[in-house]
Protein backbone atom coordinates (compact mmCIF):
# COMPACT_ATOMS: atom_id res chain seq x y z
CA UNK A 1 0.00 0.00 0.00
CA UNK A 2 1.27 3.48 -0.87
CA UNK A 3 1.16 5.99 1.98
CA UNK A 4 -1.56 8.60 1.54
CA UNK A 5 -2.39 11.20 4.18
CA UNK A 6 -5.98 11.29 2.90
CA UNK A 7 -6.41 7.62 3.79
CA UNK A 8 -9.14 7.15 6.41
CA UNK A 9 -6.90 5.22 8.81
CA UNK A 10 -4.07 7.74 8.49
CA UNK A 11 -6.52 10.59 9.08
CA UNK A 12 -7.81 8.91 12.24
CA UNK A 13 -4.23 8.49 13.47
CA UNK A 14 -3.48 12.14 12.73
CA UNK A 15 -6.60 13.22 14.62
CA UNK A 16 -5.58 11.01 17.52
CA UNK A 17 -2.08 12.53 17.57
CA UNK A 18 -3.62 15.99 17.65
CA UNK A 19 -5.72 15.06 20.69
CA UNK A 20 -2.66 13.49 22.30
CA UNK A 21 -0.74 16.74 21.85
CA UNK A 22 -3.63 18.56 23.53
CA UNK A 23 -3.39 16.31 26.58
CA UNK A 24 -6.47 14.22 25.77
CA UNK A 25 -5.17 10.62 25.78
CA UNK A 26 -8.61 9.00 26.17
CA UNK A 27 -9.93 10.76 23.08
CA UNK A 28 -6.72 9.99 21.23
CA UNK A 29 -6.97 6.30 22.06
CA UNK A 30 -10.57 6.17 20.84
CA UNK A 31 -9.36 7.46 17.47
CA UNK A 32 -6.53 4.93 17.38
CA UNK A 33 -8.91 2.07 18.22
CA UNK A 34 -11.25 3.27 15.47
CA UNK A 35 -8.29 3.30 13.09
CA UNK A 36 -7.57 -0.31 14.07
CA UNK A 37 -11.18 -1.35 13.47
CA UNK A 38 -11.36 0.37 10.08
CA UNK A 39 -7.98 -0.89 8.86
CA UNK A 40 -8.31 -3.16 5.84
CA UNK A 41 -4.72 -4.39 5.40
CA UNK A 42 -1.60 -5.19 7.41
CA UNK A 43 0.00 -1.79 6.78
CA UNK A 44 -3.00 0.11 8.11
CA UNK A 45 -3.26 -2.23 11.10
CA UNK A 46 0.45 -1.76 11.80
CA UNK A 47 0.03 2.02 11.87
CA UNK A 48 -2.97 1.84 14.20
CA UNK A 49 -1.34 -0.71 16.53
CA UNK A 50 1.75 1.50 16.91
CA UNK A 51 -0.32 4.38 18.26
CA UNK A 52 -2.58 2.21 20.41
CA UNK A 53 0.48 0.62 22.03
CA UNK A 54 2.07 3.82 23.24
CA UNK A 55 -1.05 4.89 25.15
CA UNK A 56 -1.48 1.68 27.13
CA UNK A 57 -1.16 2.26 30.87
CA UNK A 58 -0.72 -1.40 31.73
CA UNK A 59 2.69 -2.72 30.69
CA UNK A 60 1.30 -6.13 29.70
CA UNK A 61 -1.21 -4.49 27.36
CA UNK A 62 1.51 -2.23 26.00
CA UNK A 63 3.71 -5.26 25.32
CA UNK A 64 0.88 -7.09 23.51
CA UNK A 65 0.23 -4.12 21.25
CA UNK A 66 3.90 -3.58 20.45
CA UNK A 67 4.22 -7.28 19.60
CA UNK A 68 1.13 -6.93 17.42
CA UNK A 69 2.66 -3.95 15.62
CA UNK A 70 5.95 -5.81 15.13
CA UNK A 71 4.26 -8.92 13.73
CA UNK A 72 2.25 -6.79 11.30
CA UNK A 73 5.38 -4.89 10.25
CA UNK A 74 7.11 -8.21 9.56
CA UNK A 75 4.14 -9.23 7.42
CA UNK A 76 4.40 -6.01 5.38
CA UNK A 77 8.23 -6.21 5.32
CA UNK A 78 8.98 -3.36 2.94
CA UNK A 79 10.97 -0.14 3.13
CA UNK A 80 7.97 1.77 4.44
CA UNK A 81 8.03 -0.18 7.71
CA UNK A 82 11.56 -1.57 8.14
CA UNK A 83 12.71 1.65 9.80
CA UNK A 84 10.30 0.91 12.65
CA UNK A 85 11.92 -2.41 13.58
CA UNK A 86 14.55 -0.81 15.84
CA UNK A 87 12.17 1.32 17.93
CA UNK A 88 9.68 -1.55 18.17
CA UNK A 89 12.42 -3.85 19.47
CA UNK A 90 13.46 -1.15 21.92
CA UNK A 91 9.95 -0.53 23.28
CA UNK A 92 9.34 -4.27 23.61
CA UNK A 93 12.62 -4.55 25.53
CA UNK A 94 11.52 -1.76 27.88
CA UNK A 95 8.24 -3.57 28.51
CA UNK A 96 10.11 -6.75 29.39
CA UNK A 97 12.33 -4.74 31.73
CA UNK A 98 9.25 -3.46 33.57
CA UNK A 99 8.00 -7.05 33.81
CA UNK A 100 11.41 -8.18 35.18
CA UNK A 101 11.90 -10.53 32.24
CA UNK A 102 15.64 -10.01 31.96
CA UNK A 103 16.32 -12.53 29.20
CA UNK A 104 13.72 -11.23 26.74
CA UNK A 105 14.70 -7.65 27.56
CA UNK A 106 18.30 -8.50 26.64
CA UNK A 107 17.26 -10.18 23.37
CA UNK A 108 15.18 -7.25 22.20
CA UNK A 109 17.76 -4.67 23.24
CA UNK A 110 20.31 -6.53 21.13
CA UNK A 111 17.91 -6.56 18.17
CA UNK A 112 17.34 -2.82 18.56
CA UNK A 113 21.07 -2.22 18.26
CA UNK A 114 21.72 -4.34 15.17
CA UNK A 115 23.58 -2.50 12.39
CA UNK A 116 21.33 -0.67 9.99
CA UNK A 117 20.63 -2.04 6.54
CA UNK A 118 20.33 0.14 3.46
CA UNK A 119 16.91 0.67 1.90
CA UNK A 120 16.13 -1.78 -0.87
CA UNK A 121 13.53 0.46 -2.50
CA UNK A 122 13.73 0.11 -6.29
CA UNK A 123 11.72 3.25 -7.06
CA UNK A 124 10.90 4.87 -9.37
CA UNK A 125 12.13 7.98 -7.56
CA UNK A 126 11.14 11.61 -7.92
CA UNK A 127 12.55 15.04 -7.10
CA UNK A 128 10.40 18.18 -7.08
CA UNK A 129 11.84 21.61 -7.92
CA UNK A 130 11.33 24.70 -10.07
CA UNK A 131 14.64 24.30 -11.87
CA UNK A 132 14.66 23.67 -15.63
CA UNK A 133 16.49 20.38 -16.09
CA UNK A 134 16.98 17.86 -18.88
CA UNK A 135 17.58 14.14 -19.04
CA UNK A 136 21.18 13.41 -18.14
CA UNK A 137 21.57 16.40 -15.80
CA UNK A 138 22.91 15.70 -12.32
CA UNK A 139 21.53 17.05 -9.05
CA UNK A 140 24.35 17.36 -6.52
CA UNK A 141 24.68 18.07 -2.81
CA UNK A 142 26.33 21.24 -1.51
CA UNK A 143 23.82 23.65 -3.02
CA UNK A 144 21.45 26.09 -1.34
CA UNK A 145 18.12 24.76 -0.10
CA UNK A 146 15.02 25.19 -2.25
CA UNK A 147 13.15 26.30 0.85
CA UNK A 148 15.56 28.16 3.13
CA UNK A 149 17.84 30.66 1.40
CA UNK A 150 20.71 30.50 3.91
CA UNK A 151 20.89 26.72 4.22
CA UNK A 152 23.46 24.66 2.32
CA UNK A 153 22.25 21.10 1.79
CA UNK A 154 24.75 18.32 2.49
CA UNK A 155 22.44 15.78 0.88
CA UNK A 156 20.05 15.51 -2.03
CA UNK A 157 16.56 14.45 -0.99
CA UNK A 158 14.14 12.44 -3.10
CA UNK A 159 11.04 10.31 -2.69
CA UNK A 160 9.29 7.32 -4.20
CA UNK A 161 5.90 9.08 -3.90
CA UNK A 162 5.17 11.38 -6.81
CA UNK A 163 2.68 13.54 -4.92
CA UNK A 164 5.35 14.31 -2.29
CA UNK A 165 7.69 15.50 -5.02
CA UNK A 166 4.84 17.51 -6.52
CA UNK A 167 4.20 19.27 -3.24
CA UNK A 168 7.92 19.98 -2.88
CA UNK A 169 7.91 21.56 -6.34
CA UNK A 170 4.90 23.72 -5.49
CA UNK A 171 6.59 25.11 -2.37
CA UNK A 172 10.10 25.51 -3.78
CA UNK A 173 11.61 28.97 -4.21
CA UNK A 174 12.04 30.32 -7.73
CA UNK A 175 10.07 31.74 -10.61
CA UNK A 176 10.03 28.64 -12.79
CA UNK A 177 7.15 26.25 -13.16
CA UNK A 178 6.56 23.28 -10.91
CA UNK A 179 8.65 20.36 -12.16
CA UNK A 180 8.76 16.76 -10.99
CA UNK A 181 11.71 14.83 -12.36
CA UNK A 182 12.24 11.10 -12.41
CA UNK A 183 15.69 10.53 -10.93
CA UNK A 184 18.11 7.69 -10.35
CA UNK A 185 20.57 7.62 -7.42
CA UNK A 186 24.18 7.11 -8.53
CA UNK A 187 25.33 5.78 -5.16
CA UNK A 188 24.13 4.61 -1.76
CA UNK A 189 21.17 6.31 -0.14
CA UNK A 190 19.52 6.11 3.26
CA UNK A 191 16.18 6.70 4.94
CA UNK A 192 15.58 10.38 5.49
CA UNK A 193 16.21 10.90 9.24
CA UNK A 194 14.04 14.02 9.25
CA UNK A 195 10.93 11.85 8.90
CA UNK A 196 11.86 8.25 9.75
CA UNK A 197 10.25 7.33 13.09
CA UNK A 198 9.17 10.90 13.68
CA UNK A 199 5.47 11.59 13.17
CA UNK A 200 4.86 8.14 11.71
CA UNK A 201 6.61 4.84 12.45
CA UNK A 202 9.17 3.74 9.89
CA UNK A 203 9.44 5.61 6.61
CA UNK A 204 5.96 5.32 5.04
CA UNK A 205 6.60 8.37 2.87
CA UNK A 206 9.57 6.56 1.31
CA UNK A 207 11.69 9.67 1.62
CA UNK A 208 15.44 9.25 1.13
CA UNK A 209 18.66 11.22 0.98
CA UNK A 210 22.07 10.73 -0.60
CA UNK A 211 25.41 12.48 -0.87
CA UNK A 212 25.85 11.11 -4.37
CA UNK A 213 24.40 12.85 -7.44
CA UNK A 214 20.90 12.12 -8.66
CA UNK A 215 20.66 11.63 -12.40
CA UNK A 216 17.61 13.06 -14.16
CA UNK A 217 16.14 10.39 -16.46
CA UNK A 218 12.69 11.77 -17.18
CA UNK A 219 9.89 14.04 -16.07
CA UNK A 220 6.36 13.56 -14.74
CA UNK A 221 3.93 15.98 -16.37
CA UNK A 222 0.72 15.06 -14.57
CA UNK A 223 0.20 14.51 -10.85
CA UNK A 224 -2.42 15.27 -8.24
CA UNK A 225 -1.76 18.85 -7.19
CA UNK A 226 -2.62 20.63 -3.98
CA UNK A 227 -5.48 23.12 -3.87
CA UNK A 228 -4.63 26.80 -3.19
CA UNK A 229 -6.05 26.37 0.31
CA UNK A 230 -3.86 23.34 0.99
CA UNK A 231 -0.78 25.15 -0.29
CA UNK A 232 -1.57 28.07 2.00
CA UNK A 233 -1.61 25.69 4.97
CA UNK A 234 1.71 24.20 3.91
CA UNK A 235 3.27 27.65 3.60
CA UNK A 236 2.14 28.42 7.13
CA UNK A 237 3.83 25.24 8.31
CA UNK A 238 7.00 26.22 6.48
CA UNK A 239 6.97 29.65 8.09
CA UNK A 240 6.48 28.05 11.50
CA UNK A 241 9.19 25.45 10.90
CA UNK A 242 6.73 22.55 10.97
CA UNK A 243 7.66 20.80 7.78
CA UNK A 244 8.42 17.39 9.24
CA UNK A 245 5.61 15.72 7.31
CA UNK A 246 7.54 15.74 4.04
CA UNK A 247 11.25 16.15 4.46
CA UNK A 248 11.90 17.19 0.90
CA UNK A 249 10.23 20.48 1.78
CA UNK A 250 11.85 21.37 5.09
CA UNK A 251 15.25 20.09 6.19
CA UNK A 252 16.16 22.62 8.85
CA UNK A 253 18.72 20.24 10.31
CA UNK A 254 20.29 17.00 9.19
CA UNK A 255 18.87 15.41 12.34
CA UNK A 256 16.05 16.93 14.37
CA UNK A 257 15.04 16.22 17.95
CA UNK A 258 11.64 14.70 18.55
CA UNK A 259 9.42 14.03 21.53
CA UNK A 260 9.22 10.37 22.42
CA UNK A 261 7.53 8.46 25.21
CA UNK A 262 10.95 7.27 26.38
CA UNK A 263 14.47 7.96 25.20
CA UNK A 264 15.49 5.23 22.76
CA UNK A 265 18.82 3.44 22.97
CA UNK A 266 19.22 3.56 19.21
CA UNK A 267 20.25 6.31 16.85
CA UNK A 268 17.73 8.12 14.66
CA UNK A 269 20.26 8.43 11.85
CA UNK A 270 20.79 4.68 11.53
CA UNK A 271 17.77 4.14 9.35
CA UNK A 272 16.01 0.77 9.23
CA UNK A 273 17.34 -2.00 11.41
CA UNK A 274 17.62 -5.59 10.31
CA UNK A 275 16.46 -8.55 12.32
CA UNK A 276 17.86 -12.04 12.71
CA UNK A 277 16.17 -15.12 11.32
CA UNK A 278 16.27 -16.66 14.79
CA UNK A 279 14.37 -13.74 16.22
CA UNK A 280 11.90 -13.73 13.37
CA UNK A 281 11.02 -17.32 14.11
CA UNK A 282 10.79 -16.57 17.81
CA UNK A 283 8.31 -13.78 17.12
CA UNK A 284 6.31 -15.89 14.71
CA UNK A 285 5.69 -18.65 17.25
CA UNK A 286 2.45 -16.98 18.27
CA UNK A 287 -0.22 -16.80 15.61
CA UNK A 288 -0.98 -13.49 13.97
CA UNK A 289 -3.74 -11.96 16.15
CA UNK A 290 -7.27 -12.12 14.83
CA UNK A 291 -8.51 -9.75 17.53
CA UNK A 292 -6.75 -6.76 19.07
CA UNK A 293 -5.52 -7.07 22.64
CA UNK A 294 -7.57 -5.10 25.13
CA UNK A 295 -6.25 -1.70 26.16
CA UNK A 296 -6.09 0.17 29.44
CA UNK A 297 -8.72 2.69 28.37
CA UNK A 298 -12.26 1.66 27.51
CA UNK A 299 -12.84 1.43 23.80
CA UNK A 300 -15.52 3.72 22.43
CA UNK A 301 -18.74 2.03 21.32
Automatic annotation (TrEMBL):
Keywords: Transferase. One of its GO terms (molecular function) is transferase activity. Pfam families: Arr-ms. Residues 125-223 form the Rifampin ADP-ribosyltransferase domain. The keyword Transport does not apply. It comes from the Bacteria. The keyword Transferase applies. This is NAD(+)--rifampin ADP-ribosyltransferase. It comes from Mucilaginibacter psychrotolerans.
Amino acid sequence: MEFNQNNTVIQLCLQGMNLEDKGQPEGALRHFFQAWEEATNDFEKFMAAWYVARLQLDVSDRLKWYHTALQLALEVNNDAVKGAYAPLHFYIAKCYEELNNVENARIYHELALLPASRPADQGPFYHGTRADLRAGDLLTAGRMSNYQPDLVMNHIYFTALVYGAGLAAALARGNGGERVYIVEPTGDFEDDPNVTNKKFPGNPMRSYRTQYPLKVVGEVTDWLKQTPEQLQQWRKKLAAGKGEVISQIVCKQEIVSVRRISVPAWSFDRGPCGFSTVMYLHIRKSAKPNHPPQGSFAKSP
